Amino acid sequence: MILSELLSFLETLGIAPKKRLSQNFLIDPNIVRKIVRTAEVQPGDRVLEIGPGPGALTKELLAAGATVVAIEQDPVLARALSRLQTEDQRLHVHLADALTFPLEKIVAEKVVANLPYHITTPLLERLFAFPCLSITVMVQKEFAARLAAKAGTKEFGSLTLFAEMYTQVADLFPVSAACFYPKPSVDSSIIRLDRHPPLLANPELFFRLTRRAFQQRRKCLSTSLRETFPTPHTQNMLETLGLRKDARPEMLSLSDWLRFFDQTNLALSTRK
């Protein structure tokens, strides 16, 4: 939908975008088409879409031959999606909150969505646990930078490690705020994350350790983790791994963190 079409559509429904639901609707058809190309949607694919809104992306996914399972929280917009239904019934709409909807009931190879920005992190945490091949989502530009960050940069953090535990960045491109109505105060990015098996069978303890470290990212690991390990012990573990004993959390790549995590497990088991 271009802006004039969207305004006419919203007027027909008697509604306006809701700020509390982060309703900023795409009005650039080129971006919509690029999202579908980035996700490499093929005829026969089953796609999970979260927050379809007026359905611009939904329409393009259906045109690509996909079966679309859409989760929409706004009841008026959810009902309005029925106008896009295909003859072979490839659109399935659930009126629900994506944060609480039982995703285990859905089978889809790909996730394609313009995520509500106020709940991006908890939604991605749910999607990383969802069995699919790829996740292509619109997020805030700064958020995408954190997902794709390299070790040693200011953007690199516990969110980066969380994403890398489950996925690999396959594509990333910016989207101007001018491509939306209402125009948000931030620019956005489309990022495609290709799934791989989790690098740890039970990563909860790993995430607990890394989050604790990044809560004090300006401090050395030996300081931020001193409640768990004495400072000299942490420094010795880092040196054993060939890392600087004054390393800060963002200086360790995921592979470094995994090796460090092994060392911490070994140290804790030795204490028992």
Structural write-up:
The protein is α/β, with parallel strands linked by helices and 272 residues long. The chain contains 11 helices and 9 strands. Helices cover 38% and strands 18% of the residues. The strands form 2 sheets. A 7-stranded mixed β-sheet has the order 4-3-2-5-6-9-7, sandwiched between helices. A two-stranded antiparallel ribbon has the order 1-8. Helix 2 packs across helix 3 (56-63). The longest helix has 18 residues, at 254-271.
Tell me, briefly, the overall form: elongated
Largest beta-sheet characterization? 7 strands, mixed
**What is the CATH topology classification name of the largest domain?**
Rossmann fold
Secondary-structure element order, N to C: HEHEHEHEEHEHHEEEHHHH
**Count of DSSP E strands?**
9
The CATH superfamily of the largest domain turns out to be Vaccinia Virus protein VP39
**Annotation field: number of helices:** 11
Which structural class is indicated by helix and strand composition?
alpha/beta
Distance between the termini: 63 Å
How much strand content do the residues show?
Answer: 15-25%
Q: Could you report the average pLDDT, rounded to the nearest whole number?
A: 94
Instruction: Going across the biggest sheet, name each strand in turn.
Output: 4-3-2-5-6-9-7
What is Rg?
Answer: 21 Å
Total tally of structural domains = 2
- The unreliable regions are none
CATH top-level class of the largest domain:
Alpha Beta
